[in-house]
Model the fold of this input.
Amino acid sequence: MPKTVDFSNKPFHFIGIGGIGMSALAYILAKRQFRVSGSDTRTTHITQSLQAVGAHIFKQQCAANLEFFQSRNAPACEDVAAKRVSTSLNPKALTEISQSSPTISVADPCLGLPQVICSTAINPLNSEYQAAKKLGCPIFHRSDLLAALIEDYYSIAVAGTHGKTTTSSLIGYLLWQAGCDPTMIIGGEVDAIGGNARLGNGPLLVAEADESDGSLVKLSAEIGVVTNIELDHPDHYQKLEEVVEIFQTFAKRCKNLVGCIDCETVRTQLKPNISYSLRR
Done:
């Protein structure tokens, strides 16, 4: 399995694109003019919104889906390249390049098999997943893509057993109203942005960070936020100490940690350098 997500020359294909976490990532990529496709067994308002921004949605999971961008139905390479000159570089790089170098070089976006994105919900025996392995497609967990996007921006990652969606929505909305124009990846639908994701023009990203499967340890943000820590997701964790260890790793990987000290576990086990409280 490859170690890094390629933001220069490969399309993205999501197995289970209609999931709340997967769809937010697919939306951001499609809005950044990457070639996006995905499969889901149900048509919903979420898959329809993805289609509206250019994603190609398959209604069944089969090997043929992975051939889409090698077919005559795929968008022309020169059209994709023309759209993606500014979006193929990360927001950090665009800020730095605008100050230092007038030349931007973009790799050919038409080479290679699609990068396949899966979530923990996808069974390894899934026929589409097996086809991707057989074809030699780069395969990434949803959290790998989120981690790459977090690296791509000046990011705020919001974690915690409870309150992640509310807190990440509030932070993103406040930054938006303050004129920072952030990108937002939320684990729920937010009326103010009309969905679960928003592509901004600024260098900031606010992302909800999920600990349910342990993949939180992959994320490295400029600012990490932890709302609280409790024993949850018994399918993955057997005791609180295991959950704490995941959050401690996340905390170490963030440049700054903001924590709610109303939670004793956050206060004593993470010791955030910036704290907040609703009680003190």
Remarks:
- The chain has two domains: 12-141, 153-276.
